[in-house]
Amino acid sequence: MMTGSLTSQPIGHYEFCKRNASECSIRSRDVTPLKMSMDLLGRLEKLTVTVNQAIKPKSDLDLYGKEEFWTYPVDAGDCEDYALAKRRVLMEDGISASNLLLTVLRRPNGDGHAVLTVRTDGGDIVLDNLTDTVLNWDETGYTYLKRQAIDHTGRWVSIRDGDTPLVSSVH
Predict the structure, then answer these.
(1) Residue 107 φ/ψ, nearest 5 degrees
(2) Predicted confidence (pLDDT) per residue in 45-81, tens digit
(3) 114 and 79 Cβ atoms separated by less than 8 Å
(4) Rounded Cα gap, residues 108 and 121, in angstroms
(5) Which residues lie across from 50 on neighbouring strands?
(6) Distance separating alpha carbons of residues 66 and 110, to the nearest angstrom
(7) Are 88 and 109 in contact (CB under 8 A)?
(8) Rounded distance, CA 131 to CA 111, Å?
């Protein structure tokens, strides 16, 4: 996944950060991706199934009376709540925040969605509440918009289309 420059933080994440300042001020010095292994893949698959089954899908509007409210779910939540729950478990297991990135995207039907991206030396892996299958980011059919910066959990970077040139000519 190619990232671009700093971009705006999603409003739900901004409000989450106001309530959970320590979650959004982690500055990673070591930004080396995780070493992909069969063990890691198995852990990610098991976690995805466990969290996806434990949390009942429910909108923020139904749960909290507002369109966007990012939080750790108890027993119900929407896409970013699943991503936060998975991120918390993996961080408690010792995985660096630099490799656990909240990511905002568009589904093929145009709906906004959030997932957890796990950075590995074999490519970025997506943990999604819409499927128990763990996929490489480029196998999902999603259009990626932005994700957390690898070196600061309170900052976000744009995601570039792989075919977009990094430098364009000026006529």
Answers:
(1) -75, 165
(2) 999 999 999 999 999 999 999 999 999 999 999 999 9
(3) yes
(4) 27
(5) none
(6) 21
(7) no
(8) 16
This prediction has a pTM of 0.93
Q: What is the mean pLDDT of residues 2-13?
A: 96
> How many CA within 13 A on the CB side of residue 127?
33
Q: What is the overall mean pLDDT for the chain?
A: 93
Q: How far apart are CA 51 and CA 79, in angstroms?
A: 11
Q: Which residue has the tokens 């995805």?
A: 48
Q: What is the C-alpha to C-alpha distance for residues 64 and 81, in angstroms, rounded to an integer?
A: 13
Tokens representing 108?
């093929």
Q: What SS3 string covers 97-135?
A: HHHEEEEEEECCCCCEEEEEEEEECCEEEEECCCCCCCE
d(CA 59, CA 81): 10
